[in-house]
Amino acid sequence: MIKKVLSVAIILLAILFLFITLVPKVQADTKELIFEWTKDVIENDLAGFTLYEYDGSGVLTGMIFDIPYTGQTDFSYTETIAVPAGIVTKMCYTVDAYDTSGNHSNKSNQACKDIDFEVPGECTEFKVTIKVISE
After folding, report:
1. What is the mean pLDDT of each run of 10 residues along the chain (135 residues)?
2. Is residue 131 part of a domain?
3. How does DSSP assign 71-134, residue by residue?
């Protein structure tokens, strides 16, 4: 009977080991950002839009995307960003319009988001108990 219990325990431990090693771990390393805005007046010489990125304290970090105007009436842009796992950061963005002469409008209001790349904490104190029901 002891051999049978040990055999069952070894099989369960082997299954547990395979499960732990073969199930892929999800890394929170990419996020999709969706930018949306409106423009009330579409000028004849509208050429496109520029998205700007700011750090969490509101300091401009630079132009990040140039979006050509192609006659659309719904204005949006989607970008996938990658950041090392374990980081939670606040990012802010603005958009402006520019014309064919290179003139830029005033920047829009800042839109800010906390972007969470923090990986959830690990499970602890995991155990398997084998109970003999009958002999």
Report:
1. 58 54 52 86 91 85 85 84 71 91 93 77 75 74
2. no
3. S-SSEEEEEEEE--TT-EEEEEEEEEEEETT--B------EEEEEE-PPPPPP-S---------
Q: What is the CATH number of the domain that holds 46?
A: 2.60.40.10
80: containing domain: 30-116
CA 96, chain centre distance (Å): 24
- Concatenate the DSSP letters of all residues of 23-63 into one string: SPPPP--EEEEEEEE--S---TTEEEEEEEEE-TTS-EEEE
Spatial distance between the Cα atoms of 48 and 72, rounded to a whole number of angstroms: 10
The answer to whether 8 and 129 are in contact (CB under 8 A) is: no
Specify if 125 maps to a domain.
no
